[in-house]
């Protein structure tokens, strides 16, 4: 599924879970500390070009989650926060298209292409991308505008965050999306 990169006015820039709660130390080691600044540069490009933008954030139902509504971590990260007129959606599962209103908004507006960035590569970004492709959207994932954390395996091993990130992107590329770097949109 390798397609030419869409123009700013042809694709929705979808920002997934850029929330302050992901700065909590409990998540563990993280790769790509520049993901937010790369996403902010893409966001500026979309805004300057008048392209469609949508923001999604996780509204956890877990009582101790930093991403639950009312918790400080539920807030948008300032550099990628929505401005007036940009649609926002909330989800309480990993996939942004499920019961958030996003899928309906995309279809009503006639959007068929998504450029996805966000947190975390191997969870909400991956699930959103897989669901989007399965629903007929053309999807691009911006590798340097995504990040994840170290993971513990089922047998107690550890996967470092960069390996987790790269493997998640490898699983998506060519099957569910085209994985690119920010430079593809310059």
Largest sheet: number of strands, sense, barrel closure:
6 strands, parallel
| Spatial shape | globular
What's the number of extended β-strand segments?
8
Count of individual helical segments: 4
Task: Specify the structural class.
Answer: alpha/beta
Classify the beta-strand content into a percent band: 15-25%
What structural keywords apply?
186 residues; alpha/beta; 6-stranded parallel β-sheet; two-stranded antiparallel ribbon
Structure characterization notes:
The protein is of the alpha/beta class and 186 residues long. 41% of the residues are buried. It is globular, with a radius of gyration of 15 Å. Helix 3 (121-134) packs parallel to helix 4. The model has no long low-confidence stretch (mean pLDDT 96). Helix content is 26%, strand content 21%. The two termini are 21 Å apart. It is built from 4 helices and 8 strands. It has helices at 35-49, 102-109, 121-134, 161-172; strands at residues 12-16, 53-58, 88-91, 113-119, 138-147, 151-152, 158-159, 178-180. A 6-stranded parallel beta sheet has the order 3-2-1-4-5-8, sandwiched between helices.
């Amino acid at each position: 599924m390798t397609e030419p990169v869409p123009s700013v006015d042809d694709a929705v820039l979808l920002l997934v879970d850029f929330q302050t709660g992901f700065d909590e130390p409990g998540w563990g080691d993280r790769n790509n500390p520049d993901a937010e600044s790369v996403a902010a540069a893409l966001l500026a490009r979309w805004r300057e070009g008048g392209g469609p933008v949508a923001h999604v954030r996780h509204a956890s139902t877990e009582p101790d989650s930093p991403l639950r509504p009312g918790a400080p971590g539920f807030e948008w990260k300032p550099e990628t926060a929505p401005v007036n007129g940009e649609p926002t959606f909330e989800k309480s599962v990993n996939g942004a298209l499920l019961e958030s209103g996003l899928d309906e908004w995309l279809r009503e507006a006639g959007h068929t292409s998504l450029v996805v960035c966000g947190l975390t590569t191997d969870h909400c970004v991956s699930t959103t991308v897989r669901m989007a492709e399965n629903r007929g959207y053309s999807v691009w994932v911006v590798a340097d505008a995504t990040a994840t954390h170290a993971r513990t395996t089922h047998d107690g091993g550890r996967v470092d965050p960069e390996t987790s990130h790269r493997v998640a992107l490898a699983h998506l590329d060519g099957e569910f999306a085209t994985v690119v770097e920010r430079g593809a949109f310059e």
